[in-house]
């Protein structure tokens, strides 16, 4: 099997890298992070003009029908530039959940706007009291023929600025039950919805959602429609592969900065890069980086294929390995920069923040290792 990217995929990644080099240097990023919205509407529109917001969406909704493998160079470039725009939250998480769970009219009402970069989506599934990935305590009930949601959702990426939010809620059973979950679409300004915005460790905007009988539209909801639990698992697989690619980009950025620093920083009249011990450490960083590059591609290929136990385990393997080596590479980068590496005004420490956040999204290294061990024990 050929695991290399196609010419079109490489060209798309290179086009995005050129755009980010012009409009998203570290100083420009600092200004964007310091803004009230936490992202740049102008940069987002440039992403739309490049076709990024339409890339993974079906052609029926003005998209290009791309796969998670097509997303790999895009997410890598976004990670390398430490982008905080809502690509993962809107185009990957929200749009994927809507297209998998919604009917054609439901998708047609929203997804073309997402493809054009005019609407933002968010996906609200996680809860602060969750015991496992399918734990859902938020409830949905019908009042006068209208579905209303009640509960809390935690760490919703770009949840404060989203125009529409896909929310998981329980229509039957107890919070820990595998069955009885449905997906709903609600307006970002719906009555009864409170959105408390904050920033994650890597400056990515997120929000806590408080739902007090918020009116919502059930996605699908007809006999024979996609099972919401299966949709959530598939969305998590695709988002995990995207997070792996973004972590790879952050690792690459940290490695590149370290090599440049070792070549420029002088100590005792010679570059630091001539120190053999530091050269060996840089070589180990490269080995870890290339290992993670292969694992990110494995995750993208597995997420693009139909869901199966083998593909699910491949995605878990990739997430666990990238979580471990991502931190090692970025910690080495910070340490080899010395004191400047931990300053707010220098980018290398922000790469460490990004891989730390990405490690905890969709299950961290330890959770995936535990799941892999359980799968091995169960045959």
Question: Which terms would index this structure?
Answer:
single chain; Butyryl-CoA Dehydrogenase, subunit A, domain 3; alpha+beta; two-stranded antiparallel ribbon; seven-stranded mixed β-sheet; 3 domains; Butyryl-CoA Dehydrogenase, subunit A, domain 2; Butyryl-Coa Dehydrogenase, subunit A, domain 1; 379 residues; 11 helices
In short:
The chain is an alpha+beta fold and 379 residues long.
Quantity of strands, as a count:
9
Whole-number count of domains:
3
Beta fraction of the residues?
15-25%
The CATH architecture of the largest domain is Up-down Bundle
What is the CATH third-level topology name of the largest domain? Butyryl-CoA Dehydrogenase, subunit A, domain 3
Protein described:
- The chain is of the alpha+beta class.
- It has 3 domains: 7-120, Butyryl-Coa Dehydrogenase, subunit A, domain 1, CATH 1.10.540; 122-218, Beta Barrel (Butyryl-CoA Dehydrogenase, subunit A, domain 2); 228-377, Butyryl-CoA Dehydrogenase, subunit A, domain 3.
- Helices cover 51% and strands 16% of the residues.
- The chain is built from 11 helices and 9 strands.
- The protein has helices at residues 7-23, 26-33, 41-49, 68-80, 87-101, 104-115, 228-264, 276-304, 309-337, 348-360, 365-377; strands spanning 121-124, 139-143, 146-157, 164-170, 181-187, 193-199, 205-218, 266-267, 270-271.
- Strands 1, 2, 3, 4, 5, 6 and 7 form a 7-stranded mixed sheet that branches. The protein has a two-stranded antiparallel sheet with strand order 8-9.
- Strand 2 and strand 3 (146-157) form a beta hairpin.
- The protein is globular and about 80 Å long.
- The two termini are 26 Å apart.
